[in-house]
Amino acid sequence: MKNDSTTREHWGGSLGFVLAAAGSAIGLGNIWKFPYITGMNGGGAFVLVYLFCIILIGLPIMICEITLGRKTQKNPLGAFLAIAPHGTSTTRSIGSVFLLIALGLLCFGKFGLGLIFGVLAAFAFYFGWGSIGLVGVLTPFVIMSYYGTVGGWTFAYFIKGITQQLNISSTVEAQNIFNSFALNPFVAVFYQLMFTLLCGFVVWFGIKNGIELASKFLLPLLLLLLILLIMRSLTLPGAAAGVRFLLSPDFGKLTSEGVLIALGHAFFSLSLGMGAMLTYGSYLDSSKNIYIASLNIVFLDTLIALMAGLAIFPAVFAMQMNPEAGPGLVFQIMPVTFNAIGDNVGWLWSSLFFLLLFIAALTSGISLLEVCISCLIDEFHFKRHSAVFGVTLLVSIMGVLSTISVFDWEKIPWLEKIFLFLFNSTDASFFDAADNFSCNYLLPLGGLGISLFVGWVWGTRYAIDEIRKGGEQFSDVNFFTLLAGLKDDPNATRDSHSLTLGVILGIFIRFLSPICIIITFLHSIGWLKF
Ligand code: PHE
Predict the structure, then answer these.
(1) Which atom, in ligand 1's list, is nearest to the CA of 30?
(2) CA 299–ligand 1 middle distance (angstroms)
(3) Distance, CA of 59 to chain centre
(4) How far is the CA of 366 from the centre of ligand 1 (A)?
């Protein structure tokens, strides 16, 4: 296999890589979504299950993605093709199954899903295993279209905050402010475009001078803002109830649905299942320890999610707001909560909070763009700047449609008609459809594809070989020897048949992670009920 390690741009160091990858992982998922799904699923018990999912499934798949990227030094499509350049009887069989499903769906008038399965079948026939990578490159387009919309809202709210337009005392008022986007969706479109352009601006400068530099500056800033907000929130009278809500598990409130939500969210939050970590891993050189880097990324992502909970719930409880407010928790409850603190600087807390959200969204948006850009550069020989231009333009157009669709579906009648034809309904806007399709279908399927590919097609043996570079002591040392702190003891056994971290990883990748993903996926499409 050709290895472009010498010509490819690389991260300046391990820290740069970890911060950039953590920047991708830490996003709206941590600060906007995690608190509200925790609120809706019973607090502490949900948090505990989420932690299990992160460690048992998220971490192994994160290691897989980074390893595949570093080994091949390529974008997701190129990475899969580099390991398995040709279709096999297995990929052709999968393609045939997809084709049959597509035909079945078309016969029953389900044109939208039928078309999607048809495209997947064509990919499987044409690209073989490469289709997993190709889907990974297309997924960011879908995610970024609505991520940009919410990213734009955070930007708009930050501006509203500092211009003192968020001094509101009731949730009705907050709702009116939010809905005022609907009267003039061009304001929301403007902010969404600004957000996308800013992401494009960072990736324009490449890996070291763009993404790494921005992450090194933005992530510490994010941490600082979060600490400030936590201090404010925890010092409010009555804050303890919020902390208790977040940290004390009440298993009575946890449903099986909640368990599956936790697993799905682990994927979204860690940016897994779509080639983001793979792409970032492709800019890593072989001297770096993948275990340690992955552990750090997962740790930072989880820490920030928990910290966001600590910033939000104590304030929400102290101000007697409803912690189960759902997706509107952040945009409609937080400004009112901060305003209710009544120290005349509520607007400042609101501004800081939305700046925090904006930064989190920005570093994730950057990674979404970079996946597509790296594919254009590697596979289609684009220059970085033209790739950035093309991808930003395309993402902006999709984003505009998504933003308008949230408030004013009727303004884009042709898109509504296409939706009606494809899905027999216009209940969900383009925004909802992109969110639902990417989180419930594309990410779990992508994660499944990646773990099956590494575990069964590429082979854990080769993956572990790659991880050994820069992390030998971790791959081969006996797990219990490591736990006991004996890894440097020359007398500790180094028996390749013992339970090493490598062996544990292999078992996870080949069996445990795929099975868990299949269960989640079947549940999210309603074929499996508990
Ligand atoms: N991890 C990001 C978040 O938590 C979302 C994301 C998903 C970013 C996939 C990149 C890739 O918000």
Answers:
(1) 4
(2) 15
(3) 14
(4) 10
Distance 280 CA to ligand 1 centre (A): 13
| Ligand 1 mutation target, pool 154, 269, 373, most atoms within 8 A of CB | 269
For tokens 């018990």, the residue is 45
31, 268, 301, best to mutate for ligand 1 pocket (most atoms within 8 Å of CB): 268
The secondary element (H helix, E strand) that includes residue 499 is none
Mean pLDDT of all residues in 310-314: 89
167 has a pLDDT exceeding 90: no
- Distances in Å between the alpha carbon of 474 and those of 196, 287, 294, 467? 40, 14, 13, 9
Closest to 365 (Cα-Cα) out of 391, 338, 332, 397: 391
Distances (CA, A) of 448 to 89, 101, 523: 19, 19, 15
Atom of ligand 1 nearest to the CA of 272: 9
Ligand 1 pocket at CB < 6 A: 24-25, 27-30, 143, 268-269, 271, 274, 276, 364, 367-368
Atom 10, ligand 1: which residue's CA is nearest? 271
* pLDDT score of 103: 95
- Phi, psi torsion values for 43, nearest 5 degrees: 70, -125
Look at residue 3 in the predicted model and tell me its pLDDT. 46
Report the C-alpha gap between 523 and 450 in whole angstroms: 20
Residue pointed to by tokens 């919020």: 242
| Ligand 1 center to 364 CA (angstroms) | 6
Instruction: Give the mean model confidence (pLDDT) for residues 241-255.
Output: 84
**143's tokens:** 């995610």
Beta-ladder partners of 249: 43
The C-alpha atoms of residue 481 and residue 492 are separated, in whole angstroms, by 7
Residue 253 DSSP code: G
Tens digit of each residue's pLDDT (9 = 90 or more) over 24-72? 999 999 998 898 888 888 888 899 989 999 998 899 999 999 999 999 9
Tokens of residue 241, six digits: 């109830």
203 Cα: distance to centroid of ligand 1 (angstroms): 16
CB 373 within 8 A of CB 387: yes
Q: Kindly give the distance from the C-alpha atom of residue 65 to the centroid of ligand 1, in angstroms, as a whole number.
A: 15
Question: In terms of C-beta density within 10 A (0-12 exposed, 13-18 middle, 19 or more buried), how is residue 71 classed?
Answer: buried
Q: What residue owns the CA closest to ligand 1's atom 6?
A: 271
The string of pLDDT tens digits covering residues 196-244 is: 999 999 999 999 999 999 999 999 999 999 999 999 889 988 889 989 8
User: pTM (2 decimals)?
Assistant: 0.91
Q: Which two tokens stand for residue 254?
A: 């946890």
User: Alpha-carbon distance 73 to 79, whole Å?
Assistant: 7
Distance (Å) from CA 270 to ligand 1 centroid: 6
Distance 271 CA to ligand 1 centre (A): 4
What single DSSP character describes residue 471?
T
How many of the other CB atoms lie within 10 Å of CB of 418? 15
Exposure string over 161-176, b if 16+ CB within 10 A, otherwise e: bbeebbebeebebbee
